[in-house]
Amino acid sequence: MPSSSARMPGRTRDAGRTEFGPRDVRVTNIEPGLTRTELASHIEKDTLREFVEGMADTMGSLSSEEVADVVAYVSSRPRHVNLRQIMVLPTRQA
User: Fold this and answer.
1) CB 58 within 8 Å of CB 91
2) How far apart are CA 89 and CA 94, in angstroms?
3) Is 88 strand, coil or helix?
4) For the chain, what are the domain ranges?
5) Tens-digit pLDDT profile for residues 17-45
């Protein structure tokens, strides 16, 4: 069973939906998979940086524009539609 701290983000989102839903505020959890950003260049350990870059080369990665497109899609839904959770992954990422 997960610890209570592991469940907290979900409970926080649910509380946000409960509190803000009646005011037509939507809360969506977007979970992107491997996304190519400048983050890898900030990894100081060479082996870890090479591992992350190798993962991106092997299974592909999303671009920041692709993730932004998902955000735009979510926010363009009609006001009465709330997408609770979206996972967007490179096709090869299981």
Assistant:
1) no
2) 8
3) strand
4) 4-88
5) 778 777 788 889 999 998 988 877 888 99
Query: Residue 61: is it exposed, middle or buried by C-beta count within 10 angstroms (0-12/13-18/19+)?
Result: buried
DSSP 2-62: --HHHHHHHHHHHHHHHHHGGGT----EEEE-SB--GGGGG---HHHHHHHHHHHHHH--B
The class of domain 4-88 in CATH terms is: alpha beta
Q: What is the pTM of this model?
A: 0.71
Alpha-carbon gap, residue 85 to 50, rounded angstroms:
31
Degrees (nearest 5) of the Cα angle 87, 65, 34?
Answer: 45
| DSSP at 77 | S
Handedness of CA 63, 81, 29, 87 (dihedral sign): negative
